[in-house]
Amino acid sequence: MNTTTPRIIILGAGGFAGKMHAEVYARRGWTVYGVDPQVKPTVPLPPILWADAVVDVCTPTAIHVESVLEAYRRGARRFIVEKPQANSFDEWSRLMEQLPGATVYGVHNYLWSEAFTRAQDALGTIVAIESAFDKDRSMDDRRARGGHHGRLAPVLHVEAPHQFAMALAVDSSLEVTDTIVEDDHGVSAAGLRRFASVDLQSPSGVRATLTTNLRAPRRRTLSLTDDRGYRAEVAFARAGLEPATMTVSAPDGSIVSTWAGVDDALGRNLGDAVRSFELGTSSAFLGAAFATLVLRSLDAAEDRALQGAA
Fold this sequence. Notes:
The protein is an alpha/beta fold and 310 residues long. It has two domains: 7-108 and 269-284, NAD(P)-binding Rossmann-like Domain (Rossmann fold), CATH 3.40.50.720; 110-264 and 294-309, Dihydrodipicolinate Reductase, domain 2, CATH 3.30.360. It has nine helices and 13 strands. It has an eight-stranded mixed β-sheet with strand order 7-8-9-6-10-11-12-13.
């Protein structure tokens, strides 16, 4: 980038994610330009700005691809894309083929969580992963938040991408073995599906169970168990900069260590992404390849759900 102070163009600036990202950049004193194609015509920013700025895509997932392609057409070559990065693995793969010369980073902010890092560092070889990310989206669904043209985001595209990203960061060879989805009335694969449970297993025997309930009170938890039976349990902040906690216990249940603190995972994720454009190097978890891995696993979970409903 040619300026000492990063300049960010947020697409979807009027949405929840766009506002959160803008707050992160503002705290760092970076220049932010907001564009919300759902509310008003695209702001006629000069071509030089598109070419020099980082474009942060916070539009609904359903239009991520068209948002990226429009910005690319205007000269943008540096992109940060919110999770899930596309509607499917195939859609994401096709997009990557259409962006020669561009660098694309994905947002998977829980991988930048201090609690997540401490939990991994406290254990030996991790053999079991459990996670529950719940959030009552009844009101959001009525307002069609995160949807597009009247279609709501699928159950596995709301909270679950965070869980898949953490599981795959622990063991990238995890494969989906089973998926259960239910609607508001507990009827499998019928109506508006707002509960999902996904099982994964790796060739080495690592197991993961990820559940998400979009009609339950908010909670975001992660439990990791190592080959000695030690267990790290994380309760992530439910919103904003609330404190997160991490507790490590021995096989006999005794507490080995604890940690609590403000966990600005999103701030670290976005900050690292912007700095990586300047440095020309990045964490593997930022790159398009990791987003591809997460999307492939999400697709596999959805395919399993459809097979179970057949």
